[in-house]
Amino acid sequence: MAKSIMIQGTMSNAGKSILAAGLCRIFKQDGYRVAPFKSQNMALNSYITKDGLEMGRAQAVQAEAAGVEPDVAMNPILLKPTNDIGSQVIVNGEVLGTMPAREYFKKKKSLIPEILKAYRKLENAYDIIVIEGAGSPAEINLKTDDIVNMGLAKLLHAPVLLVGDIDRGGVFAQLVGTVMLLEEEEQKRIKGLIINKFRGDQTILDPGIEMLKTYIPNPVVGVVPYMAVDIEDEDSLSERLMQTQKRAPVDIAVIRLPRISNFTDFDVFSQSEFMAVRYVSHPAQFGTPDMVIIPGTKSTMADLLWMRQNGLEAMILKAARAGTIVFGICGGYQMLGQSVRDEWGMESLGQKEIRGMGLLPIETSFCPEKTRTNVKGRIGKTGGRLAALEGAAFSGYEIHMGESAGEIRWLTMEKGSAGEQGQTLADGCCRDSIYGTYVHGFFDSEEVIGRLEEILLKEKGITPDGAKNWDRHAYKEQQYDKLAEILRNHLDMKAIYGMLA
Questions:
Q1: In angstroms, how far is CA 372 from the centroid of its own chain?
Q2: 179 and 216 in contact (C-beta within 8 Å)?
Q3: Which SS3 state, helix, strand or coil, does residue 499 take?
Q4: Which of the following is catalytic: 24, 429, 440, 490?
Q5: Could you say which of 330, 400, 429, 490 is catalytic?
Q6: Quick one: which H or E segment has residue 102?
Q7: Could you tell me which of 331, 423, 328 has the C-alpha nearest to residue 375?
Q8: In a 3-state reduction of DSSP, which class is residue 289?
Q9: The CA-based dihedral angle spanning residues 181, 186, 192, 193, taken in that order and rounded to the nearest 10 degrees
Q10: Could you tell me the pTM of the whole model?
Q11: 60-98: pLDDT as tens digits
Q12: Distance set, CA 106 to CA 100, 103, 145, 182, 426 (Å)
């Protein structure tokens, strides 16, 4: 039976996910079979397993760090917010339904058997399980029905590491306040404290760490520095989304939609010294980008109306008329078409149809069944400024509720999820310098990103020195090893190994 360690945080974005990924990599390096686990995740960044099931992307990243295949058992419950008070509820990779928050809170304790079943599956297959909590365990209004923090720790008899974020200030108040709001039994489950995202001279911090002992007995087992590692982020609190200024010769503007999803599609651009992504949420930030990307979203219609109302749609249309490359992925692709229909009320917007941006000759209709599949293929006949992409191989995944009808297809691909191998289909649409596809991870493919950089740099009159290595897998492995090395240097791993239970 596997031993476990649980990472909880004093708040959202304290660094739980990346620390869990780092511990997964350390335990892997030390020869253990290790798996991540998060009972309930709320995020719009998701992942499609080889079985065609949907799970939180953070646990897929942690599995990658652990060197194991992502399994939906690692995240049995995924909540994907559709608006401010409701979410699509996904259990064991399948859509259970869309529920208001109050309805879900009444139901979630009934999902404990599913959580335990998923955990037992991992427990029987691995040596160590790194469990991640959500938000804060000190949300006293939610504790009664907790299934993801201390409630889960109690169910699994898991020891807890509590992480505080010093970068946002008040880390000692975070740690002390969190512990003191817990019940005595819960306080005893916390075996160690971690101060995360520290910058500067640690000797200045040491007196505060010593004073902590007068308030709470839990030992500090590490002060982790602010880390310059390129690991995929989990949610909309990502610092990547705060980047709004041009940072490289090739300027790529990604529209920061209110319900942006799977923005990990653009992480690959961080490997380039010549191309950089910035996120735009207001017309004043738009500028004159070389390429505009409209990303995926959980609420296509609502986010399209948001762009229409705040003026970003007009900026994109103006850029398109000037010949700027405009690229839509998933929901962004749907927006580029002539219309978006929602006869089934899948987005609960109250409108059955809205006008699209009119840049591509497609029409989209939402349907109750979600498409979830891995794909691979080649780019077909392509015009406009990205014509040189023709013939490039790509792979990725589709995850969407709508189907788009049109004739100008530019991608030919094969499904790769279990039970679908060999099924071929055409995807995407392009016209002039406007491009769209349902394929997430499209830019991760070596041929695609390599040729794209070449196209955009050639237009700038820039010739890079030497061939660029775009091996995304090798790059990620390098980053996981870098993360593990930093954590080994700043965590008391001997103490952490002693906590495993």
A1: 16
A2: yes
A3: helix
A4: 440
A5: 330
A6: helix 101-107
A7: 423
A8: coil
A9: -20
A10: 0.94
A11: 999 999 999 999 999 999 999 987 778 999 999 999 998
A12: 10, 5, 9, 23, 42
For 41, 158, 257, 461, the CA distances from 72, given in Å and listed in that order, are 12, 21, 27, 46
User: H helices of 4-100, where?
Assistant: 16-29, 57-66
Cβ–Cβ under 8 Å, residues 237 and 263: no
> Are the C-beta atoms of 66 and 34 separated by less than 8 Å?
yes
Instruction: Give residue 350's region: left, alpha or beta (phi > 0; psi -120 to 50).
Output: left
DSSP 57-81: HHHHHHHHHHTS---GGGSSEEEEE
Based on the residue annotation, tell me whether 490 is a catalytic residue of this protein. Answer: no
- Give residues with Cβ within 8 angstroms of 20, minimum separation 6: 7, 36, 62, 130, 131, 132
- Whose structure tokens read 């974020």? 165
> Residue 268: what pLDDT?
96
330 in active site: yes
| Three-class secondary structure assignment of 301-365 | HHHHHHHHHHCHHHHHHHHHHCCCEEEEECHHHHHCCCEEECCCCCCCCCCCEEECCCCCCCEEE
Determine whether 71 is exposed, middle or buried from the number of CB atoms within 10 Å of its CB (0-12, 13-18, 19+).
Answer: buried
> Residue 235's pLDDT is what?
64
Report the relative pairing of strands 434-437 and 325-329 from DSSP bridges.
parallel
Q: Which two tokens stand for residue 432?
A: 């002039």
Task: Give the integer Cα–Cα distance in Å for 271 and 445.
Answer: 13
Q: Which long-range contacts (CB under 8 A, 24 or more apart) does 464-470 make?
A: 464/274, 468/271, 468/272, 470/268, 470/271, 470/446
Q: Are 17 and 29 in contact (CB under 8 A)?
A: no
**pLDDT value for 348:** 65
CA distances from 205 to 64, 94, 220, 322, 405 (A): 34, 47, 12, 54, 60
Question: In this predicted structure, what is the pLDDT of residue 6?
Answer: 98
| DSSP designation for 40 | E
Strands 363-379 and 411-415 turn out to be antiparallel
Handedness of CA 72, 109, 33, 65 (dihedral sign): positive
Specify whether the CB–CB gap between 313 and 357 falls below 8 A. Answer: yes
| 8-state DSSP, 385 | G
The continuous run of DSSP H or E covering 97 comes out as: strand 94-100
Residue 274 and residue 253: Cα distance in Å, rounded? Answer: 14
Q: Which helix (H) or strand (E) holds 397?
A: strand 393-405
Which stretches of the chain score pLDDT less than 70? 234-237, 348-349
The per-residue pLDDT for 351 is: 83
Are the C-beta atoms of residues 279 and 257 closer than 8 Å to each other?
Answer: no
- The radius of gyration of the chain from alpha carbons, rounded to an integer in Å, stands at 23
Nearest to 219 by CA among 459, 34, 496: 496
Residue 501 CB neighbour total at 10 angstroms:
13
Using a 10 angstrom Cβ sphere, with 0-12 exposed, 13-18 middle and 19 or more buried, the burial of residue 54 is buried
